[in-house]
Amino acid sequence: MKIKTLATGLTLLSGCAMASVALAAEATAIPQPAQICVTCHGVEGQGIEPLGPRLAGLSKDYITTQLQHFQAGVRQNATMMPMAMMLQGDGIEQVASYFSAKPTADVKPVIRGEQVTFNDDTARLAYQGDWSRGLPACVTCHGPSALGGGLFPRLAGQQASYIKTQLLAWQAGTRKGDVDGMMASVANKLTAAEVDALANYFANLK
After folding, report:
1. Residue 85 contacts by C-beta under 8 Å, 6 or more apart in sequence?
2. What average pLDDT does the structure give for the chain?
3. Considering the entire predicted model, what is its pTM?
4. Are the beta carbons of 165 and 157 closer than 8 angstroms?
């Protein structure tokens, strides 16, 4: 009986030790500057709603630029501004390189022009815009199926709550830094219902 109890105890200790080693290895694989990010954005950059949005799938250039905007106060957020200030030296580059390399779910790109008639108003707005209001199609900048690229973020699969929050931030002027005020102009032409609809539409492109 004692031998069996001892064997069980050793097995449990072994399991705990292996788990500790695995966690230590995982932490080691994450660049030190990026370790402050995983609490809200997750180790794989998949985001933890409502704490932080998905970073996986965003380009290195985009993540770099946004962190610089937080540091400069161009983009305002009570949580992210002090976090960004902690990234000194090559910290921003390490964070951007780490999260931009994380895998994302494959989404079949729908090329603009493949479909010319849309019964869904939100899809029409995403792919054709509304030129009667001076609204360009979202995919004009965010790419086929809003997969993003360069300084334009991926919207496909992003949290609906986050997309909505950002559109509202553009409307309120608490987010800036877009070329020629383009996103602020677009966001301010959207109705509250359209903001909700677009946020949910892109979030469900997975």
Report:
1. 70, 71
2. 89
3. 0.85
4. no
134 contact partners, CB below 8 Å, separation of at least 6:
185, 189
Question: Which of 140, 60, 154 is closest to 107 using CA atoms?
Answer: 154
77 — pLDDT class (breaks 50, 70, 90): very high
Tokens 């609204």 correspond to what residue? 135
At 82-122, the pLDDT tens digits run 999 999 999 999 999 999 999 999 998 988 888 889 999 99
Q: Angle 67-72-73 (CA atoms, 0-180°, nearest 5)? A: 95
Q: What is the DSSP string of 49-115?
A: TTTB---TTS-HHHHHHHHHHHHHTSB--TTHHHHHHT--TTHHHHHHHHHHTS---------TTS-
